[in-house]
Please model this.
Amino acid sequence: MGRRLMKGVALVLGLGMVMGTIGCGGTTAQPEAKTSEPKQAAAANKENKTDEAVTLNFWHIWGAETDASYNAVKTVIADFEKEYPNIKIKVDTTENEAYKTKIKAAAAANELPDVFSTWGGGFSKPFIEAGRVLAIDEYLEDGTKDRMVGGALANVTYGDKVYGMTFGLSCGAFFMNEELFKANNIKIPETYDELITAVKAFKAVGITPMAVSGKDTWTIAMYFDAMALKAAGNDTIVKTLNKEGSFQDPAFLSAATKFAELVSLGAFPAGAAGLSKDESDIDFLEGKIPMLFNGSWTAGTVYREDSKIKDKVIVRGFPVFGDGKGNKNEFTGGAVDAIMVNADTKHKEAAVLFQKYFCENMARETYLAGAYLPAWKVDVDETNINPLTVQLAELTSQAEGFTLWWDTLLEGNDTQIYLNALQELLLGSITPEEYIAKLETIYQK
Amino acid sequence: MEKVWGDKKAILFFLFPSFVILALIIITPIMMSSYYSLLDWDGFGKGTFIGLNNYIRLFKDPAFIKSVRNSLVFAFASIAIQLPISLLLALVLAKGVKYERFFVTVYFIPVIISTVVIGQLWMKIYHPEYGLLNMFLKTVGLESVTREWLGDTKTALIASVVPVLWQYIGYHMLLLYAGIKSISTDVFEAAKIDGATWGKTCIHITIPMLKPILKVSFTFAVVGALKVFDLVYVLTRGGPARASEVTSTLMVETIFKSNSYGYGSAMAVFVVVECLVLYLVIGKLFKEEV
Model:
């Protein structure tokens, strides 16, 4: 019997080898299957150009049904294909974190799709420096720019050229379960001192006050970005992260000390460091944890079907610090989610056409879905919109400015230094002073 | 058989395809990585040649040293815990127990389940609030032992080691089981006639005769442990605070999150060399003992 087993193994291995060779031969012999496209003079008019059948590859991150933008993306792409029947959109979606790896790998190998979603600021900077992304200034002069809100292109402008389009604005916001506050007779915090009081009061009745995921480190950064902003103000942060200042500024230590204070008070769930974002969200959506500071897209999450806290949540900015330089009208975030076009695409016109259509319509659809605040001037009936999104729109209408999230503003390696140090601060394994020293290392290059 | 060995064309015919595949998907990438590891390169633009600086940086990088140490913990645990269990299971099953085939299949099941599924499964087991493990500990009155297994820097590594061991026990068991089954039954019968007990037969006959397969198992266990990535990535992403970081997770982070392609390639080359060296050491150990 043993023999038979060995024989079987040998057979499988042999088969694999043969299959391998067949596969190998196949790929080399196969003619390159690309849509043949007659070369046209550069001056070809647009109508001609859009008449030919074109397939655009489009990669994005909104492929999960739990995603607040899921339906919006589907609608917009379907509408586009209806309006331009000769252009087919071939979609490929990947989960957010994995997508970041994938898009970087694709950019490195020069295998980017025609159109792709990405993030403005430091994230896409290497792509632009490597010449992978199409500059679209010439396509924006036809009045497109006027249909966007101010600052919509701020994070996709590199040098003095525009390389992408945004559709939605996101900001960090404190989502608070008002019912839990009322039930326990706790005041909704407006200042940091009140926040501490609230944290202590919740702890006293056995409720963990704030949700965070230490495994998906960007969720910790949501908190710290906002705290640093309240402590240091926009200008200092931008200057420091662009390596023109220093983390030795006492405001950063103040923010770190306050964060460590929240940790030591037990504001975050025990074991938060081992929980993924999905796991940590559940307790908030179940109405067990009263506070969650995260992106404005959480409005969509709060109203998703299985949520038990619909209509119980209100939105606030991060509580202001008595000794801080940031005020209550400064927010973290901005128009970061961007759509960019591959510089080497074979169908420039079609790709940019899709990019524009997608962004402008996504601005409306995602606003309606409660996933983003619109980065384009949209005209919609607000009565059907997610009430939290409307609240957010009101809150941010007073905004003096948006400070990009650090993990977007900083470049890859520095982002990792920041997030890894922050994770240690959350674990309490380093002191605020050591944390600042770790941040300061991004200057050593 | 001898005719075939003498026929050079036949040898070429059978070996050439696998050589091509090996060259294309193994040797070329290793060469390329070796070259990249000499560059200061972000993966996009042009890299600058910096000689061995990446390697010098490796040995000064506490995160890297920690990750190598953690990988070695995986390798050691594989040899010290996983293989003995596999061997014992293989010996017992090969002895001929009731429902032998059924058990072989059952122990092999974890090997064929996708690692991500196993990761999710163990995440539920380890979950601090509703996880099986903590629930069990509470029920038997060991509440003081309960903890956030994956979120605690003290236990994250060991908590990621266990599923990896668990998953591949069946794999090594099958290898060894097949090995035992291919030993001629004459030997066992002779031992029986001489009055050897099962234990004695195992120690003096089965295990020594199993040495070639044991060597294979050893090699796979060590090399596999040094390259482990998927389960750790799913369970902890190498965290918290690098407590369970292994070389592969650190490498992926370095290349794709920190955009340090050159430095990450140096780690990759290190892993290749590390595996090769340990492979040779294992070969040597087994040779000396025979």
Residues 11-49 of chain A have pLDDT under 50 and may be disordered.
